[in-house]
Amino acid sequence: MSEEHIIVSRDGAVLEIRFNRPDKKNAITNAMYGVIADAVAAAQTDDSVRAVLFTANGDFFSAGNDIKDFAAQSAGAFDGPRHVGRFLEEVIKAEKPIVAAVQGHAVGVGTTMLFQFDLVYIAETARLTVPFIDLGVVPENASSLTVVDRLGHARAFAMFGLNEPLTGKDAAAWGLANAALPFGEVEPKARAAAQVLASKPPQSMRLTKKLMRDREALMARMQEEGEIFAERLRSPEAAAAFAAFLTKR
Ligand code: COA
Q: What is the overall mean pLDDT for the chain?
């Protein structure tokens, strides 16, 4: 497992998961998904953990799924278990609150995971994109549901269809993020919020989160999207998009 690309640490009752692959804009490899899936799962069964914080090093929160992994999957050249589905499921099933400190840009799953979290603090200058159509695939992580729910169809379609970025400012104004802040204030604010969540009665917190989220609907949509996504990964449109990205390097 590529532990050096994901730093898991503790700050009191808050479990912190940090993307640490800044030279690749925190693109997430299969091994990284394995580590974050395990961390989110372990947090649910460890009574000493009461909240989870996602954060990142570098100028990107995450550039999404590693395109080399996508290209290998597209070509049928990917061996071993795939951990992405497990990560997405663990987040949907999670009973403990999840906070994000989005200090920089996010792409693909780096954006869609934010729509699954409970509190999001974002840099004013951050830009969030979901270029699934440009990559020849379809939305994942139940984002065809969550993005529409939060932003409305027109804004969601501009993101998916036109690849229009959602700015940090608009993310806060339109209901994704709790606040858009100057870069240096994002992580301290998210940390402080996670600590407040962790100080509250844990069972009441857990039950409230459960009541607020329709997990069955999220899981069903995530699985429906996942089947189409897997087919699309093998499509000529996707293969061409991955090759274009990789040959530009
Ligand atoms: N997968 C694999 N590598 C990635 C990556 C990804 N998703 N995103 C960035 N990288 C790598 C680049 O290949 C480059 O590696 P290199 O230095 O070895 O060439 C490095 O990260 C820096 O990226 P670069 O493109 O030079 O930075 P940039 O600031 O010009 O652009 C992005 C950043 C994120 C806009 C651009 O890299 C990009 O479009 N990445 C793909 C994002 C994507 O489509 N993700 C999947 C969503 S489903």
A: 97
Distance from the alpha carbon of residue 96 to the mean position of ligand 1, in angstroms: 32
Instruction: Give counts: helices (H), strands (E), the chain.
Output: 11, 10
Alpha carbon nearest to ligand 1 atom 47, residue: 108
CATH of 2-203, one of 3.90.226.10, 3.90.1150.10, 3.40.50.150, 3.30.1440.10: 3.90.226.10
Tokens of 11: 């700050």
> What digits encode the pLDDT tens for the residues 74-126?
999 988 889 999 999 999 999 999 999 999 999 999 999 999 999 999 999 99
CA of 25 to the centre of ligand 1 (A): 6
What residue's CA is closest to ligand 1, atom 8? 63
Beta-bridged to residue 192, according to DSSP, are none
Residues with CB under 6 A from ligand 1: 24-25, 27, 63-68, 107-108, 131-132, 135, 245, 249
What was the pLDDT predicted at 215?
98
Split at pLDDT 50, 70, 90, the class of 1 is very low
Distance of CA 23 from the midpoint of ligand 1 (Å):
9
- In the chain, what are the domain boundaries? 2-203
Give the residue, out of 25, 128, 229, with the most ligand 1 atoms within 8 A of its beta carbon, to mutate for a pocket test: 25
